Amino acid sequence: MHRRNFIKTGSLAGLTLSAVAAGTSTLLAAPLNEADALPNEAPGAFTLKEATITELQHKMKNKVLTSRAITEMYLKRITEIDKSGPKLNAIIELNPDALSIADAMDKERRNGKVRGPMHGIPILIKDNINTGDKMHTTAGALAIADNIAQHDAFIAHKLREAGAVILGKTNLSEWANFRSTRSTSGWSSRGGQTKMPYVLVRNPSGSSAGTGSAISASLATVGIGTETNGSVVSPSSVNGLVGIKPTVGLLSRSGIIPISITQDTAGPMARTVKDAAILLSVLTGVDPDDTYTLSSKDKIEKDYTAFLDADGLKGKRLGLEKSHLRGNETVEALFHQAIDLLKSKGAEIIEVDLLLPTRETGRGETAVLQYEFKDGLNKYLSKANCKARSLQDIIDFNKANEAKAMPFFKQETLEQSQKREGLDSKEYLDALKGTSEGTKAIIDNVLKTNKLDAIIGITNGPACCIDLVSGDYGGGFSFSGPAAMAGYPHITVPMGTVHGLPIGLSFVSTAYAEPEIIKLAYAYEQASKKRAVPEFKSEITA
Question: Less packed terminus of the chain by CB within 10 Å, N or C?
Fold first, then answer.
């Protein structure tokens, strides 16, 4: 979560990798020759770097690779990159059942059954999403390190139905960055500090830091993050990814450790718009255990890849957040290049002011989230398979284990949340009305008045340095707030790099406008091709 907008106003477990650490000579279903190498890969190199879902499905269909081979190769990559080489520390736990799942998917394929585009594809998910298996679900917190869920979250179940191989869980900012006002993104007491793969001393952004770092470094094909305010789009931007923060209600939140019932959502994180659209298609569905999904019943698209149109910018009217035309001059330059490209592809650009009016509606967001966090977490813990049964238990555990649980920053956000009353409180209801309904009205008015298809802006500034003493600092730009408070869709696409640090371009629109913004984002992506492959540098270069 991109907490700075409102708060201030590990080891691998479960799976032994020695079996795959020695090499990949036995992993292929058929010999890999130069013709079979994926784009930008020399023969003999790690063949899955930057690989897409479509490419891997092609390999499996043609019996060049199996799901087991692909899974083993990712496990080897994790050993070499996440723990032995640059040590990204992006993965908090591996799934001991990953290879058996891959074997089952291979057996189905041999018998003529392919469930869909995710069949046999390895995926990483954030460590606040329940899996009813041998893995833990902890939100990165030592306080619930014993939590092994009895059932899959709704979206985890959807992944299994689609034939995906849940490879493991990713590290995150502890409690999805809802613990302290000076937290360091990507750090958790259970998992430690995650690094970003472009410049290792820079912060991968939170709270879905592990997913962002891992998918950018090709430790899996695609991944899932969660967002309350910025936690999908910010780490996607910083790590050179495509991230989709859907309309709240399009994806179920049941079985996900909560912050906010009105703002929380999971979302795809991928290296291409197409892969993100494929994953989004798999995750949607009406869930009786999450009443917010009832509103999506007639709005779910069966296949979001149907909206991938390279000419999708023609005749479109895009509102440009005018405050983003000033600030960091190097980031501004990228933004101007993107604007020129959008115009060249047929889009009309109209300057608008979205951030300034939503600052007023955002004044109540802190209260809303604290009320909802206390209520939601207490409900989650009351049914969880761990010793802690309430937010107060978490606070007490952290105090009793301060050296391990709180070595760098404390838990004032947890303590402030504990002081809040119930969701029937007048303070909460007033704050919610102003924040949620007020922000929706502003966005819809900007879209309607200017006859816009979407609003664009700079997702956020360059990655800050990892600073466990003082916490995160801003990069001068942020565009997550309005869509987050409104519960509206937001997609970010790579726009380029500044001194080797990726910057994302955002597309935001009204409720259930995912098809439209996916179309716009895809058209921009295909025209720009700004995704940069990380090089694991130790410092910024000119």
Answer: C
| Contact indicator for 462, 499 with CB cutoff of 8 Å | yes
Q: What is the pLDDT of residues 215-233, one digit of tens each?
A: 999 999 999 999 999 999 9
207 annotated active-site? yes
> Is the model's pLDDT at 308 over the cut of 80?
yes
**Cβ-based neighbour number of residue 315 at 10 Å:** 10
Whether 15 shows a pLDDT value over 50: the answer reads no
* Backbone angles phi and psi of 227, in degrees to 5: -135, 140
Catalytic residue of the set 205, 231, 252, 296: 231
Q: Which member of 59, 67, 76, 126 is catalytic?
A: 126
At 42 the pLDDT is: 43
- Alpha helix segments (H runs only) across 390-460: 391-400, 402-405, 412-418, 426-432, 438-449
> Is 237 part of the annotated catalytic residue set?
no
The distance between the two most distant Cα atoms of the chain, rounded to a whole number of Å, is 67
Q: Specify the higher pLDDT residue, 31 or 509.
A: 509
Residue 499 has pLDDT above 90, yes or no: yes
Q: How far apart are alpha carbons 477 and 464 in whole angstroms?
A: 12
The token pair that represents 269 in the structure block? 């994180």
Residues paired with 508 in a beta bridge: 455, 490
Q: Which of 207, 237, 296, 478 is catalytic?
A: 207
**Residue 99 and residue 70 in contact, taking contact as beta carbons nearer than 8 Å:** no
pLDDT-above-90 percentage for the chain:
89
